[in-house]
Amino acid sequence: MQITIEKKPYASLEREAIVTPVFEADDPIQGRVAELDQLLGGLLKKLATSGELTGKNLEFTLLHAPTGLKASRLLLVGAGKREQFNGATLRKLAGAALRSLKGKSVRNFAFLAGGTLPVVEGAQALAEGFIAADFETDKYKTDKKEKKIETISLVGFPEGEFSAAEKGLAAGRVIAEALNFTRDLVNEPSNKLTPRILAEKAEAMANEAGLAVDILDDKKIAELKMGALLSVAQGSVEPPRMIVVTYTPANAKPGAPVIGLVGKAVTFDTGGISIKPADGMEKMKYDMAGGATMLGAIRALAALKPNVKVICVVPSTENMPGGKAQKPGDIQTAMSGKTIEVLNTDAEGRLILADAITYAKQLGVTHIVDAATLTGAIVVALANVNVGVFGSNQEFTDKLLASAKAAGEKMWQLPMDDEYREFIKGSFADIQNIGSGKGGGSITGAWFIREFAGDTPWIHLDIAGTAWNDDAKPWLAKGPTGVALRTLVHLVQTY
């Protein structure tokens, strides 16, 4: 799909459709919509007066053969209240418009872009929205839909701002393509994406992006005494992998941190001996979404070239109930030397993250963010709206939350009071992998991981409720979302 900046007047463009946002107001016929209304002989004013055109968020009004335009259609998309409009709103609006027109077999359209946001921000948001919306989850269907958007023209940017628009468009394309790379990994079924295959795909991505890569096989993992990771892997015939991808800037900023991006990648999670219910288990292919997000983020960073070093560490395994699988009550020794009493084998993500974080620290990271589809408890607490955020250093956590706001991703910080630490105090080992109480499951899971971060500033993102859409959104296909990638990229760029 080609996206270009168009300098010609929008009224002269011969396209299958032109799209414009309409803001909600007592009189929505303002600005460019008023210009369009004049071209259409007052039709939009009549629609607004009748209540058919209000500008409410994602309200669609499609007009055919609009008078005064060379385009075949005019699509007006509600943008909500102007004072609440931001990049996230524009991304959704752009994505919803694309999916609507794609469903009508439109192959090309123009989007009236200028004037809603600062030029760079607006062009970036549009590119992200369009490219993410164009992603489909029908890879393995034999009767694929042939409907395809081929070209999009962004028109309406102020004269003299075209270079700024190109800059935003380029950044948006990098981020959106990295997002779709992540979503494609998450969408893969487990028979098509074992830990070894994930490692191969990560290595291919790193080589293409010019990143350093190191894949630790099961023998190397054993040599490094990563007992927590090995304990989860021992029930499967598929061997584990530890994936390390490193971005080193050409001109590192003096005194800059080394950011560690650590992501859980359980390519299929049955729960092990503490087996999950059959209903919905097929979705457990997405239990590697945290790792996929980190790989996507460093892919984007390789192109955007921030001035700080980033090390991505992804532990990958299956969690299976085989004859050699670990059992509830087993005691394992992590790479750090800390002993773990495994009370529930379905609390496996925190085990593999324990060794990954220890290894990341050994590689020299100074700040750590981990992402994982860790707990069902976060779904109970925050549903599928907010990512759960946990941190050991408030300054670092505040920085991430500011990036989330700038990136338009909803995240909510939960408490990490010392009292919760007591919930994972072990009876027969240093710590246990689930809490002793009946509540606070997402917090105790975070506390377990924090034990291995130690004094290193650390943030945990629990994306269990937000990494997967059970139903399609107007702006996004059903399935993987790529949540947190935009935030992580923005965070690294702030250093």
Features:
alpha/beta, Leucine Aminopeptidase, subunit E, domain 1, Aminopeptidase, 2 domains, 9-stranded mixed sheet
Topology summary:
Blueprint lengths: L1 E5 L11 E7 L6 H9 L3 H8 L9 E5 L8 E9 L5 H17 L4 E5 L6 H16 L16 E5 L6 H26 L7 H15 L2 E5 L1 H6 L3 H7 L7 E7 L10 E6 L1 E5 L19 H16 L4 E11 L11 E3 L5 E3 L7 H14 L4 E6 L4 H6 L4 E5 L2 H14 L3 E3 L4 H4 L9 E2 L8 H13 L4 E5 L5 E2 L9 E2 L4 H9 L2
Parallel strand pairs: 1-6, 2-4, 2-5, 5-6, 9-11, 9-14, 10-11, 13-17, 14-18, 15-16
Antiparallel strand pairs: 3-4, 7-8, 8-11, 12-13, 15-18, 19-20
Helix pairs in contact: 3-4, 4-5, 5-9, 6-9, 8-10, 9-15, 10-14, 12-15
Describe this entry's structure for a reader.
The structure is a single chain. The protein is an alpha/beta fold and 495 residues long. The chain is built from 15 helices and 20 strands. The chain has helices at residues 31-39, 43-50, 87-103, 119-134, 162-187, 195-209, 218-223, 227-233, 289-304, 349-362, 377-382, 394-407, 418-421, 441-453, 485-493, and strands at 2-6, 18-24, 60-64, 73-81, 108-112, 151-155, 212-216, 241-247, 258-263, 265-269, 309-319, 331-333, 339-341, 367-372, 387-391, 411-413, 431-432, 458-462, 468-469, 479-480. Strands 7, 8, 9, 10, 11, 14, 15, 16 and 18 form a nine-stranded mixed beta sheet that branches. It has a six-stranded mixed beta sheet with strand order 1-6-5-2-4-3, covered by helices on one side. Helix 8 runs antiparallel to helix 10 and helix 12 crosses helix 15 (485-493). The radius of gyration is 24 Å and the shape is elongated. The mean pLDDT is 96.
